[in-house]
């Protein structure tokens, strides 16, 4: 997407939100509708939507259109008023189209055309079978009857073989990554019920916590469970819990039995076999 000559890259969730707003240009779109558009069939906190809106606002800065909050309701996409104070922050009326500068009209038209064109390309491609859309599910190592999928991040995956094998037997599919970069890429293209991460990787003793913060900044809603070892001293144990909580991680597991039990409870809603 080009804005004032700048190339702007949007993640799929931000694009879905922009498309939902553009389809109802100048009208309020409720938060629930935007959450459903960007995170279908997922329970996501409103903070994820707010972060995605913030990214879109930065991307649209200087474009002639803006996203405005309708407090307590949702958001709307509109043309930027000519003068400050012309339109209240949560108002729906737009400047008369005849008053818009030619550049703004062109940008708005381009935005809507691009969105419609992308939708059209997908529809035409499917109809003509000229684009590489799969007609059958891709072959993966996931069990066909898997009831949930999680991501496990650890630079020493062999350490978790027994836990992962147990989860697979319980019909939990487990995808693995050894670096934060790989984990974030997998999170962009897959929906995970949970992310289990080690605390430190390589020379970075806080890699798991940094990944958790990066996920939050990028609007990735999957909860994170940090799996590490328990410090021997009570004071260090308290410091560890506080550090994990401040990072935004949802949970902390310190033993193989604990990680099995907590994963089972979170993703399948039942206890683990002892």
From TrEMBL:
<dbReference type="InterPro" id="IPR016032">
    <property type="entry name" value="Sig_transdc_resp-reg_C-effctor"/>
</dbReference>
<protein>
    <submittedName>
        <fullName>DNA-binding response OmpR family regulator</fullName>
    </submittedName>
</protein>
<keyword id="KW-1133">Transmembrane helix</keyword>
<dbReference type="InterPro" id="IPR011006">
    <property type="entry name" value="CheY-like_superfamily"/>
</dbReference>
<feature type="transmembrane region" description="Helical">
    <location>
        <begin position="106"/>
        <end position="127"/>
    </location>
</feature>
<keyword id="KW-0472">Membrane</keyword>
<feature type="DNA-binding region" description="OmpR/PhoB-type">
    <location>
        <begin position="1"/>
        <end position="79"/>
    </location>
</feature>
<dbReference type="GO" id="GO:0003677">
    <property type="term" value="F:DNA binding"/>
</dbReference>
<feature type="domain" description="Response regulatory">
    <location>
        <begin position="149"/>
        <end position="270"/>
    </location>
</feature>
<dbReference type="Pfam" id="PF00486">
    <property type="entry name" value="Trans_reg_C"/>
</dbReference>
<dbReference type="InterPro" id="IPR036388">
    <property type="entry name" value="WH-like_DNA-bd_sf"/>
</dbReference>
<keyword id="KW-0812">Transmembrane</keyword>
<keyword id="KW-0597">Phosphoprotein</keyword>
<dbReference type="GO" id="GO:0006355">
    <property type="term" value="P:regulation of DNA-templated transcription"/>
</dbReference>
<dbReference type="GO" id="GO:0000160">
    <property type="term" value="P:phosphorelay signal transduction system"/>
</dbReference>
<dbReference type="Pfam" id="PF00072">
    <property type="entry name" value="Response_reg"/>
</dbReference>
<keyword id="KW-0238">DNA-binding</keyword>
<dbReference type="InterPro" id="IPR001867">
    <property type="entry name" value="OmpR/PhoB-type_DNA-bd"/>
</dbReference>
<feature type="domain" description="OmpR/PhoB-type">
    <location>
        <begin position="1"/>
        <end position="79"/>
    </location>
</feature>
<dbReference type="InterPro" id="IPR001789">
    <property type="entry name" value="Sig_transdc_resp-reg_receiver"/>
</dbReference>
<feature type="modified residue" description="4-aspartylphosphate">
    <location>
        <position position="198"/>
    </location>
</feature>
